[in-house]
Amino acid sequence: MIKLLKYIVVVFCLSLVGCFQPFDESLFEEGEPVLVVEGNINNLNPPYEIIISKTIIPESDINFSPVSNASVILRDAYNHSELLTFVGSGKYICYTIFGVPDNTYTLEIDYENERYTGVEKMPVIPVVDSFNIGYKDKTVSVKGYYFDVYIDKKKDTISYYKLDVSVNDSLFDDYSDLLIYDDAYIEGSFEIRVPYAFNIDDTVHINIQSITKSMYNYYYDLSRHYTNLLSTLQPPIQNPPSNISNQPIGYFQVSSIVQISEVVVAEETNK
To answer: 171 with 244, same domain?
Structure first.
């Protein structure tokens, strides 16, 4: 996950100090802290983690304000439910409920006499037809080995994807590494080129996540805000819309994942 995502606040990020210029303090009006939720459920085996915190003002000496006294329940469509276990640092862990594609999951958070609810249906697992690793030196800005991934396109549907990529156990996790795609207007196989140049002997891990439309819209708005920060012409700053009720900041992501792990070798022996 994007390393700063969990610190989103009134203008979509709690702490950008060190990354960007501080925001104008007049944008921050005095008020009660807002709940921040970072929830992830997928089709891989549990445990799953929900991180809950509160917003803090930019000039604060701390950069994370965890919530330790919330009641967090995860339910599925088969009448299974679990009261999540608090383990510290704002983390609540689910151990017994399994992520299953086409199942609907409900996250309920009770905190300070308020209830926050997120409901998401897990998308089907993406079908990777094939992938190719090839050396590029003419049509790219950086020479190296690139991954092209081909995903089966489902007829008469639009699917949404998010890629998480790491090389040699180092995750690409800046805002510019927020890789989201949709296959609207695509017929047949959907091709995604992973936008990083790799070297021989690099170990590359790619998580291809099928996400819901609401999460795609959330990430799209987040990336758009990041782009606007780098522009001299910016629209009014606001938080990406949450898919959780009662106006917290953050999200409840329910996704299905396919994983690719490969060591880059010389092109003549690649697949």
So the answer is: no
The verdict on 134 and 116 lying in the same domain is no
Closest Cα partner for 216 from 192, 186, 245, 251?
251
pTM for this model (two decimals): 0.83
Same domain, 157 and 263: yes
| pLDDT tens, position by position, 21-32 | 333 344 445 568
- Are 145 and 114 contained in the same domain? no
Same domain, 82 and 150: no
Asked if pLDDT for residue 123 goes beyond 60, the answer is: yes
91 and 167 co-located in one domain: no
Task: State pLDDT tens for residues 244-267.
Answer: 999 999 999 999 999 999 999 987
Q: What is the pLDDT of residue 30?
A: 53
136-171 pLDDT, tens digit per residue, is: 988 888 999 999 999 998 888 999 999 999 999 999
CATH of the domain at 192: 2.60.40
State which residues form the domain around 164.
Answer: 128-208+259-269
What are φ and ψ of residue 181, in 5° steps? Answer: -145, 155
The torsion angles phi and psi of 88, rounded to 5 degrees, stand at: 110, 160
* For residue 9, pLDDT beyond 60: no
